[in-house]
Amino acid sequence: MDYRAPMAHDQSEVDALLPLQQAEFHILLALCADDRHGYGIIQDVDARTNGALRLSPGTLYRTIQRLLEQGLIEEPRKPATRDGRDDPRRRYYRITPLGTAVARAETQRLADLVKLAKHVRRDAESS
Predict the structure, then answer these.
(1) Torsion sign across C-alpha atoms 63, 52, 31, 43
(2) Going by CATH, does the domain composed of 11-126 fall within 1.20.1250.20?
(3) What are the residue ranges spanned by the domains of the chain?
(4) Which long-range contacts (CB under 8 A, 24 or more apart) does 9-15 make?
């Protein structure tokens, strides 16, 4: 998920932040591979969900503010750009080790929910 080595976090600290809102989870996923600016996050989420989730700028920046306050993302001092050019008007965001731990925990929580739903459905179909 993330190329950065995660730091150990207290499980209760991670659990206290779950469940994530849909926008929070997708923003963290967008930042797992690379630092991104707001419009880049919107584009990544749109592409990753095949247009099923379209973040408005208002939703994006309110959610980013909350993730910053929770310590799940940060603004790096020097943004990483692929082409070596930087637009000083753009604010870049990076997932933190805590953000990585929370994204992994949410991924596991969702996988467990899907597993449970499949089991319940199978039981209902067989009765």
Answers:
(1) negative
(2) no
(3) 11-126
(4) 9/97, 9/98, 9/101, 13/98, 14/98, 14/101, 14/102, 14/105, 15/105
Query: Residue 64 in 3-state DSSP?
Result: helix
Within the chain, how many helices (H) and strands (E) appear? 5, 3
Q: At 7, which amino acid appears? A: M
| Exposure string over 44-79, b if 16+ CB within 10 A, otherwise e | bbbeeeeeeeebeeebbeebbeebeeeebbbeeeeb
- pLDDT tens per residue, range 47-98: 999 999 999 999 999 999 999 999 999 999 765 555 556 677 789 999 999 9
